[in-house]
Amino acid sequence: MTIVELSQHTIALDPPQRLLTLEVMTEENQLCLRIFPIDGVEVGDVRLVSKSSTLGSTAGERVEYDSMSLMRHLSEAFPQLAQIDIRNLPSEYRISFGAVPSPFHFEAGKRYRISGVGEDVWEAIAVAK
User: Fold this and answer.
1) Which residues of 15-32 are buried (b: 16+ CB within 10 A; e: fewer)?
2) Cα separation of 12 and 123, whole Å?
3) Which residues pair with 26 in a beta bridge?
4) What pTM was computed for the model?
5) pLDDT tens digits, one per residue of 2-28
6) What dihedral do alpha carbons 19, 46, 29, 37 form, nearest 10°?
7) For the segment 20-65, what is each residue's pLDDT rounded down to a tens digit?
8) Whole-number pLDDT of residue 61
9) Residue 78: which of 123, 17, 24, 33 has the closest Cα?
10) How far is residue 41's CA from residue 25's CA, in Å, rounded to a whole number?
11) Measuring CA to CA, which residue among 11, 30, 8 is closest to residue 19?
């Protein structure tokens, strides 16, 4: 189980996560922000992991992955994040904001739905501090 804490401009994750995508929405399901790999591609409203990522073994033969194994494999390329400052993202990521005021911050006392995809798929509700 992933525990998420939100405060002003930071997202704390316990345990630390290797993220392929992270989405934070207000409880009313209005998109606040989405964090995804810097070289990700977008198809419609879905952000995908890098199109330059390749899968295979060191011998070059094709390897079959189920969806969870594929996510774990792809997430290995990213750092484990325990805390994310949305004003200063790690160089491997970029961010997009929904219809929210700029500069953005998490409002104390407001509830947010957070979903993450990486080594695992998870969802949490957090009240900003």
Assistant:
1) eebbbbbbbbbbeeeeeb
2) 14
3) 112
4) 0.78
5) 999 999 999 999 999 999 899 999 877
6) 30
7) 899 999 877 677 898 988 876 544 455 555 544 444 444 555 555 5
8) 54
9) 17
10) 21
11) 11
